[in-house]
Amino acid sequence: QVQLVESGGGLVQAGGSLRLSCAASGRTFSNYAMGWFRQAPGKEREFVAAITPNGRSTDYADSVKGRFTISRENAKNTVYLQMNSLKPEDTAVYYCAAGPWPTDLRAGVGPRDYWGQGTQVTVSS
């Protein structure tokens, strides 16, 4: 079992940067692929980024590629999302997700996966 808590959201101006953190409990953290999703009001949840358990492979949605970077520190049970060159369309609640390996988070989060409660990111123009 993994429990996830996101932090680091807030209000930033377009073009600015923000780093989100996801703190995970449990000693099985290193066995999980980790990812970030986001959901804007009235819209469906969408995939943002994912990282393999060993941190050596990452995957990004086309909309954030080149601007966002996902990373993890397994010794700290923490996953990060560095967001640069933020745009108003990045405004959403950002959720941390964990899936037992092997899993493809881009394909969707399933019944065996875990979610955090989300953190609000608002980008002003």
Instruction: Give the number of DSSP strands.
Output: 11
What oligomeric state best describes the polypeptide chains here? single chain
Main beta sheet: strand number and arrangement? Answer: 7 strands, mixed
Computed structural class: mainly beta
| End-to-end distance | 40 Å
Query: What's the shape?
Result: globular
Q: Give the helix level as a range of percent.
A: under 10%
Which spans have pLDDT < 50 for at least 5 consecutive residues? Answer: none
Can you write the helix and strand succession as a string? Answer: EEEEEEEEEEE
Number of helices: 0
Radius of gyration: 13 Å
Q: What's the average pLDDT?
A: 94
Q: How large is the share of residues in beta strands?
A: over 45%
How does this structure look, described?
With 125 residues, the chain is mostly beta strands. The chain has no helices and eleven strands. The chain has strands spanning 4-7, 10-13, 18-24, 32-39, 46-51, 58-60, 68-73, 78-83, 92-100, 114-115, 119-124. The strands form two sheets. Strands 2, 4, 5, 6, 9, 10 and 11 form a seven-stranded mixed beta sheet that branches. A hairpin with a 4-residue loop joins strand 7 (68-73) and strand 8 (78-83).
Write the layout of secondary structure elements.
Blueprint: E1 4-7, E2 10-13, E3 18-24, E4 32-39, E5 46-51, E6 58-60, E7 68-73, E8 78-83, E9 92-100, E10 114-115, E11 119-124
Parallel strand pairs: 2-11
Antiparallel strand pairs: 1-3, 3-8, 4-5, 4-9, 5-6, 7-8, 9-10, 9-11
Features:
single chain; 125 residues; mainly beta; four-stranded antiparallel beta sheet
